[in-house]
TrEMBL record:
<keyword id="KW-0808">Transferase</keyword>
<dbReference type="GO" id="GO:0008168">
    <property type="term" value="F:methyltransferase activity"/>
</dbReference>
<dbReference type="InterPro" id="IPR035094">
    <property type="entry name" value="EgtD"/>
</dbReference>
<dbReference type="InterPro" id="IPR019257">
    <property type="entry name" value="MeTrfase_dom"/>
</dbReference>
<protein>
    <recommendedName>
        <fullName>Histidine-specific methyltransferase SAM-dependent domain-containing protein</fullName>
    </recommendedName>
</protein>
<dbReference type="InterPro" id="IPR051128">
    <property type="entry name" value="EgtD_Methyltrsf_superfamily"/>
</dbReference>
<dbReference type="GO" id="GO:0032259">
    <property type="term" value="P:methylation"/>
</dbReference>
<dbReference type="Pfam" id="PF10017">
    <property type="entry name" value="Methyltransf_33"/>
</dbReference>
<dbReference type="InterPro" id="IPR029063">
    <property type="entry name" value="SAM-dependent_MTases_sf"/>
</dbReference>
<keyword id="KW-0489">Methyltransferase</keyword>
<dbReference type="InterPro" id="IPR017804">
    <property type="entry name" value="MeTrfase_EgtD-like"/>
</dbReference>
<feature type="domain" description="Histidine-specific methyltransferase SAM-dependent">
    <location>
        <begin position="43"/>
        <end position="361"/>
    </location>
</feature>
Length: 372
């Protein structure tokens, strides 16, 4: 699994640095986001060596990329953030009532802005709160953690700077009676169907029976509305897309000439997904010295940098129900096969059905398999 991991207590400035320090722990995996790969940057080499070319979406997120994403969330065309916020405003108290005192583990936490609605609900019910943000983008994770600690005097935070896989495999046991893994913002949609299936299996593995998963997912809607959200009039999404090339230049000693590419995004109706691409404006060669990689582009050739799938709630719930993790255990009269399953408990949407929240519980189904 992981190469370099270290845990630190953040050094913080006023007010009450000692108090904040004692409530914050950060586990930092190796500094670049490809650190879980057996070879750093292997996923970049693989993506740029195939036809059509692709790059993993996690490379959007250095400090600049995280800041651009925050700007996207405020755009008039980008409806997902404000719609999910409204759903959480309406139902966070109901979620907290169902789970009771629960540690929140958030995948791809970013600025943790929407998480505050869940934290408020636990605080309002007089429940203790523990928060474990997980994000490859260390700057925004640490900055948001410090703001949260200042605003929530009884909150404790253990943040993990690294990929979902690395952090999930290294999670400390829950500090509260139960745990809820939150995956908000429809970041699930950035995984393709196979990655999604594999990911659900990993989540089921990470959850104990009785624990929860809260998924926020963007739903299918008109092509016009979707394409506007990913082609905003101010060009912020274009800047976000192109920033991936700056990030790769910095990580892997690259010489991408960013102004020789342009942003393109469109809705693929067959696959129910937005696709973001970077289109080469000319025939060009790019070198990534740290990866010993030279890549040739033809004019108009594209790199697909992101898919953003748009879900149908019933199909998604079906898919969640079909996830099953089996752990076998020997017993006197045979073998007990314990299956962990994800059971959707409740779903909430907005009046337009633009966005959905799905709360699942990990449940154990034991089965004794008799020996012959
Ligand atoms: N949850 C927030 C942010 C979504 S943006 C919201 O709903 O607004 C997606 C976040 O996931 C970014 O902060 C990015 O850095 C993080 N991220 C993307 N791929 C990741 C990966 N493979 N592992 C860990 N974090 C990842
Ligand atoms: C983080 N993720 C869910 C966003 C999305 O909508 O797929 C990233 C994004 N890409 C372009 N705009 C926003």
């Amino acid at each position: 699994m992981l190469e370099s991991v270290h845990t630190e207590t953040q050094s913080l400035s006023a007010p009450s640095p000692t108090d904040l320090q004692s409530r914050l722990q950060i586990t930092q995996f190796a500094s670049d986001p490809s650190s879980t790969a057996s070879q750093p940057g292997l996923d970049v080499i693989q993506g740029l060596s195939k036809t059509p070319k692709t790059l993993p979406a996690k490379y959007f997120y250095d400090d600049q990329g995280s800041q651009l994403f925050e700007q996207i969330c405020e755009l008039p065309e980008y409806y997902p953030t404000r719609t999910e916020t409204a759903i959480l405003q309406a139902y966070a108290a109901e979620i907290a009532t169902i789970t009771g005192p629960s540690e929140l583990v958030e995948l791809g936490s970013g600025s943790s802005t929407k998480t505050r609605l869940l934290l408020d609900a636990y605080v309002d019910m007089g429940l203790a709160s523990w928060y474990c943000p997980i994000d490859v983008s260390g700057g925004i994770l640490k900055q948001s953690a410090i703001h949260l600690l200042k605003d929530y005097p009884t909150l404790n935070i253990h943040g993990y700077v690294g990929t979902y896989e690395a952090a999930l495999a290294a999670l400390s046991p829950s500090q509260l009676p139960t745990r809820m893994i939150c995956f908000l913002g429809s970041t699930l949609g950035n995984l393709n169907p196979q990655e999604c299936e594999h990911f659900f299996a990993e989540l089921t593995q990470a959850l104990q029976p009785g624990e929860y998963l809260l998924l926020g997912v963007d739903l299918q809607k008109s092509v016009q509305q979707l394409e506007a959200a990913y082609n905003d009039s101010q060009g912020v999404t274009a800047a976000f897309n192109l920033n991936m090339l700056h990030h790769l230049n910095q990580l892997f000693q690259g010489d991408f000439q960013v102004n020789h590419f342009h942003h393109q995004s469109f809705y693929n109706l067959d696959k129910h997904q937005i696709e973001m691409h970077l289109v080469s404006q000319t025939a060009q060669k790019v070198n990534l010295a740290a990866l010993d990689l030279t890549v040739e582009f033809e004019p108009a050739e594209t790199i697909r940098t992101e898919i953003s799938r748009k879900f149908d709630l019933e199909t998604l719930k079906q898919q969640l129900r079909s996830v099953s993790q089996t752990g076998a255990q020997a017993s006197g009269g045979g073998e007990i096969a314990a299956h962990k399953e994800l059971t959707p408990l409740r779903t909430w949407t907005d009046a337009n059905q633009w966005f959905g929240l799905v709360l699942c519980q990990c449940q154990e189904k034991a089965q004794v398999v008799q020996e012959d």
